[in-house]
Structure formats: structure tokens, C-alpha cells
């Protein structure tokens, strides 16, 4: 069976965790409550995958050109107009007024 998703083909690739988590919770075919579940998960104290996600989200916001191809838009299908706008909205929804810069 051939891997379809970027993070399956490149598990250690750049932004694999960001793309995987975003797809799991933000894809239009996910459950309606999935985005709320992501918001709750972002508030957890000890979630190693979310720590990586947050770090990759920061890096992607600071330089969206680093994202691999159109993997994010292909898997999430956001209506924000650009990857950068989607990533900034995602940050705001998950982390509020917390500065993007670490």
C-alpha cells in the first residue's frame, strides 16, 4: 500500500507534525467538534506531539515559504486566502494573545 499523506511518506520531514495534526482536526471532512477538540488539546500541559506542533506552527508562521509544497492547503482546505492567514488564525484560536515569537 502506498502512503498518501505527507507525514506518512516523510515522518521526519519538515512540518510533518503540523500538517498531520492540522489535517486530523481541521480537514473539512472531520467531525464538527474536532476543531474544539484541538483547542482543548492545545491547552494540555504535557502533550509531546502538541509541543512539536506548536513549535512547527511558530516556524511556519514566521516563514510560510518553508512549508513543503501545497501539503497544508491540500490536506486542510482552509478558506483564509493564504497559508499564512490560516496559520495565524490557527495560532490565535489555539494560543490566544501568546506571542508567536518564542
Description:
The chain has 102 residues and is mainly alpha-helical. The protein has a domain at 29-95. It has six helices and no strands. The chain has helices at 6-9, 16-26, 34-42, 48-62, 71-76, 83-95. The model has no long low-confidence stretch (mean pLDDT 88).
Q: What key attributes describe this structure?
A:
102 residues, mainly alpha
Question: How would you sum up the global shape?
Answer: globular
Gyration radius from CA atoms, angstroms:
13 Å
Mean of all residue-level pLDDT scores: 88
Number of strands: 0
Main sheet makeup: none
Number of helices: 6
Distance between the termini: 40 Å
Structural class determined from secondary elements = mainly alpha
User: What string gives the helices and strands in order?
Assistant: HHHHHH
Q: Strand-residue fraction? A: under 5%
Helix content: 55-70%
**Low-confidence blocks of residues:** none
What order do the helices and strands come in, and which of them pair?
Layout: H1 6-9, H2 16-26, H3 34-42, H4 48-62, H5 71-76, H6 83-95
Helix pairs in contact: 4-6
Summed up:
The chain is built from six helices and no strands. The chain is an all-alpha fold and 102 residues long.
Amino acid at each position: 500500500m502506498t502512503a498518501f499523506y505527507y507525514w506518512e511518506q516523510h515522518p521526519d520531514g519538515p512540518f510533518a507534525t503540523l500538517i498531520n495534526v492540522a489535517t486530523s482536526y481541521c480537514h473539512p471532512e472531520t467531525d464538527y467538534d474536532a476543531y474544539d477538540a484541538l483547542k482543548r488539546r492545545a491547552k494540555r500541559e504535557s502533550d509531546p506531539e502538541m509541543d512539536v506542533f506548536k513549535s512547527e506552527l511558530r516556524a511556519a508562521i514566521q516563514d510560510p515559504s518553508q512549508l513543503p509544497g501545497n501539503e497544508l492547503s491540500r490536506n486542510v482546505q482552509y478558506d483564509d486566502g493564504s497559508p499564512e492567514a490560516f496559520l495565524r488564525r490557527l495560532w490565535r484560536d489555539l494560543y490566544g494573545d501568546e506571542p508567536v515569537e518564542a
